[in-house]
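User: My instructor asked us to take a sequence, write out its structure as tokens, and then describe one feature of it. I'm not sure where to start. Here is the sequence I was given:
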Amino acid sequence: MMHNWFTCKIRFEKTLENGMNKKVTEPYLVDALSFTEAESRIIEEMTPFISGEFEVAGVAKANYNELFPSEEGAADRWFKCKLWFITLDEKTGAEKRIVFNVLVQASDLRDAIKKLDEGMKGTLADYVIASVSETAIMDVYPYEAEPDVKPEFNDADKR
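Assistant: Let's start with the prediction itself. The structure tokens for your sequence are:
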């Protein structure tokens, strides 16, 4: 399934542990078809969780080719993993590196690399982990179709 990921930044007033209120901007990742749908979906997703007013401070296209979420309770952070797939150019015989970005949900850096390797297990191409860095992403909202919605065309799911 093809995903179009957008980073949506939400600006709102948050109550800190010491009781003080502070304006914060937090990024979230949303799967949507357009900038407009991404903004609409993040508003829908965030409304139950934020008391008071909030605004969508920005929506930007995110360049992630793959996402490896985790069900573990300790895996509360998102890591951006930049991979290089190494291919040979048939005409020149030179090595080419193709960049592939993966977002991994893990508890720490070591766990992220472990989960990345697990997720890439079935890959036939050689790859190199170029970098792994923690992101500020708070949560990810993939697109999920309603269970009772039927496709417009009968053979739509046979592709």
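For the description part of your assignment, you could build on this observation: The two ends are 11 Å apart (CA to CA). Try explaining in your own words what that tells you about the chain.
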